[in-house]
């Protein structure tokens, strides 16, 4: 279990985190439709390479934070306000997303591998996400910051992310209706998640 759980957890967490329509997986789908599957796979490889470095940095940072309890407490306090603010934004302020535009053209003809690296680099959300994910798993006893579990967790995240990208590449036409439904209701989904996280974090602070 010590060696089995980290890659499985990394895969599952990444899969669930990336499965919703986003810039990278939607771009992969559009490249597949307009330029072919091979170009889209190259794009996905480039994006996944950056995911590897982002996740590795996040886990190292999480290990440092976990060794300093005062930092953990401060982050939890800050997290309450962040999650609460995001909940207010997504429930009452954010505009309803527009319908997906499958006619959008990708004009740039540069190497798709490097385009994937570029877009993935611009997306900084995975770093704080995997910081908190790995810290939560460690606190629950399902993960440790030793070299082998860390390597396996990072590998699992990369494979999970690439799997989602590939699903969008090969099956976008089949799942397009479902992605449109998700996009139209994404604010409610995200708002519910952030509200839940704010409540859990508050309870942890109150009963620690």
Describe the structure concisely for a colleague.
The chain has 208 residues and is mainly alpha-helical.
What would you note in describing this structure?
The protein is mostly helical and 208 residues long. The chain has one domain. The protein is built from 8 helices and no strands. Helix 3 packs across helix 6 and helix 4 runs antiparallel to helix 8 (186-206). The radius of gyration is 18 Å and the shape is globular. The chain starts with a helix and ends with a helix.
Question: Secondary structure elements and their pairing?
Answer:
Elements: H1 5-18, H2 23-35, H3 37-66, H4 69-93, H5 112-122, H6 126-139, H7 147-184, H8 186-206
Helix pairs in contact: 1-7, 2-3, 2-7, 3-5, 3-6, 3-7, 4-8
Number of separate helices: 8
What structural category characterises the helix and strand content?
A: mainly alpha
Main β sheet profile = none
What's the alpha carbon Rg, rounded to whole Å? Answer: 18 Å
Shape, principal axes of CA atoms: globular
The share of residues in helices is over 70%
What is the distance, rounded to the nearest whole angstrom, between the alpha carbons of the first and last residues?
Answer: 28 Å
Features:
single chain; globular; mainly alpha; 8 helices; 208 residues
